[in-house]
Amino acid sequence: MSVLNELEKASLSPSVGQTSPEKHPMDDFMRMDRMPHIWCSTCGIGVSVNCFAKALEKCKIPLDEVVVVSGIGCTGRVAGYVKVDSFHTTHGRAIPFATGMKLANPKLKVVVFSGDGDIIAIGGNHFLNAARRNIDMTVICINNFNYAMTGGQLASTTPEGSILTTSPFGSHEEPFNLPFLAESVGAVYVARWTSLHIYNQTNSMVEAMRKPGFTFIEILAPCPTIYERQQKFGDGLDRLRWYCDNSEIRNGANTRDVDIRLNAGVVVGKFVDKERPTYLESMNAHYKEKLGDRYKPYEG
Amino acid sequence: MPVRQRERPFGLPKPETPHGEIIILEERCKGCGFCIEYCPHHVLITAKKYNAKGYHPPEVEKAELCVNCGFCRMICPEFAIYTYEPRTGEKP
Amino acid sequence: MKADPRGVLTGSHYLDGDHACCEGALTAGCRFIAGYPITPSTEVVERFARRAPLIEGALFIQMEDELAASIAIQGAVWAGKKAMTVTSGPGFSLMMEHIGLAAMTETPCLFVDVQRGGPSTGLPTLPGQADMMQARWGSHGDYEIIALSPNSPQEAFNLTIDAFNLSEQYRVPVMFMMDESVGHMMERVVIPPADQIEITPRRYTKLPPGKYLPFKPEPDLVPDMFKAGDGYRLHVTGLTHDFRGYPDMSADIQEQLVHRLVDKIRVNAPKIWRYEETSVEDADVVIVTYGITSRLAIDALNIAREKGIKVGMLRLIVVWPFPERRIRELAVQGKAMVVAEMNYGQMFYEVDRCAQGKVPVVLAGHGGGTVHRVEDIVERIMEAYRCRS
Prior knowledge:
The complex is a heterotrimer.
Chain A: E1 2-4, H1 7-12, H2 45-59, E2 66-70, H3 78-81, E3 85-88, H4 94-104, E4 109-115, H5 116-121, H6 124-133, E5 137-143, E6 146-147, E7 153-154, H7 178-184, E8 189-194, H8 198-210, E9 214-220, H9 224-230, H10 236-246, E10 247-249, E11 266-273, H11 279-291
Chain B: E1 21-25, H1 34-38, E2 44-46, E3 58-60, H2 71-75, E4 81-84
Antiparallel strand pairs in B: 1-4, 2-3
Chain C: E1 11-16, H1 17-28, E2 30-35, H2 42-51, E3 59-62, H3 66-78, E4 82-87, H4 89-94, H5 96-105, E5 109-117, E6 123-127, H6 132-137, E7 146-148, H7 153-170, E8 173-179, H8 180-184, E9 186-191, E10 235-237, H9 251-266, H10 269-272, E11 275-278, E12 285-289, H11 293-306, E13 311-316, E14 318-320, H12 324-333, E15 336-341, H13 347-355, E16 361-365, H14 374-386
Parallel strand pairs in C: 2-3, 2-4, 4-5, 5-8, 7-8, 12-13, 12-15, 15-16
Antiparallel strand pairs in C: 1-9, 5-6, 7-14, 11-13
Helix pairs in contact in C: 1-2, 1-7, 3-5, 11-14, 12-13
């Protein structure tokens, strides 16, 4: 057993490094000079970033070719902490930025890491169209059921009845069912996991990044400071315990049936895994057919 | 039972349970409790001490039970705990 | 460096302004356009959609809205391409947030606004020049951009190349302010051979990863750039950031960053200013104008000269940064100024500010929908002459 006491080092600098000759295995993937990150204690975003780092390691994609694009919000801060070329763009527009980047240089592995409000509310239109076009990118959407960074407002994924700052008497709106939405607009890989399902999450991320096309992973994460507190549920650990007892893995389930309601169990799993030509593949095939030998396939 | 089924399968030595050494980076910890809750062998407990930020980091209670499964490493949101196999150096 | 001949359609053509702009972009090395259809700019992207599949490395995508188009081009820029988007008034308003992002992250790209009658849906098929102030101040916060205004299809071609060059040199989004008249007017456009055209390449850093700081400025206040995939592994954010690109929430870093973003253009402004002067040496009344209105103003100038009034004209080619120094000089040397523009006063206020009360400044403006009547400009010249200082 070995415990490192870094009290002195912590008092000298705002970020914490380590003096152990053994490095944390994920330190190479993170901008350690910016640690500690801003996410709250028992927040689920840190867990997903940890799984993502592991997934990158398993995927064996050279880190120089990976690009992480995020929007605004708590999950949007992920781009600032992962040690790859990362872009922190405007609210809701991570997906079109990633589209431009991927189409300009198809050799890049583009991952969009953003929150539920960013991707499906303000960014909804872009999500629909990128999935429809099957742009080759992986979208990891951390769903904490509210707009956390701005203090906990109602989101389009908030379960009906939730109390949040802009629904102080409980929400009366029907939320999105993200896997259903993703499948209906043509995503080729759709999965949902919770922060507790770390191995499943990691494996899904590996599969999604390896699969060409628009791949989507929704991760239900606890938001202790806001969502859980407003519902008087406890903290993130209480929510993880709840997921342990109330989540059901149903791979291949019909996405129509996986909507989320307050106080009802959640269905997780890999729901969709199908094949479709990507945007560039169909573009190249199409122009080859129409223009013949005059057309050189687009490679970036 | 035929005699050969009582022999070791394929002549391999008896499988050994892996063992992990745990490194806790106390100053990174935000006291979430995930590693303590979800260690399959309940190796960790909440320490009574505080770190500089005022959180209680985990503390190893039953070091000999750690099997280097890596669950604590992966579920930690702060990158504050990991294990390694002392003989091979493997970090899951 | 010289233009890539694969994109250059050398020869003499009969093109409208929109098409000439597209050719200018291809000549300048633009290989990515993300657009959204809006009259009267659609022809630019229609031509690019037709040309791009046959030019190696060029790609056109029609995005789902202007918000997506204006940020997709920035993704393409950070992946290594030169990129442009095209719109008109209503789309320009939508793009404002991303113009601010491009200014903050110092992303070189082009925003073409083929102005039409406004406000709101306005007159989609008729000219206006009422987005000039919006080009400069449209997004929130302190920032500076460069804006150009052509007055013919040939200029639309030439200035698009210049716009790309300025954008790369100063790492700033450039607004290309055409109007519907120039956009839909067909004239002769001569495109020279590729080896006679100078293109400013992107200023990539020569420092290796680890030593390079993405937002540390060079002596001209502009940092060198990098692109994703080259192994730098850096962070680019719209939040206020330090030299490393890391967000920093302190007033000192805000001062360090935003002051430089603004100074980048203000300090270098004398090198960026461009205007064309006609007969100003002895002029009592100077017309300040730009875009299609300048072609009417020239006629007004000649008529006024025949009437005995010494009139000169200053045509703004680079509209922002505004050529304050030249306006101040003309205000001292002349007796009155007329600002002829197709709006109810936008660049007029800049001219008035720079004249500092030394001369009366009269607006020859109208709401758009048609170009000026020469008689109206002449009348304004007479009015300005009557109250000359």
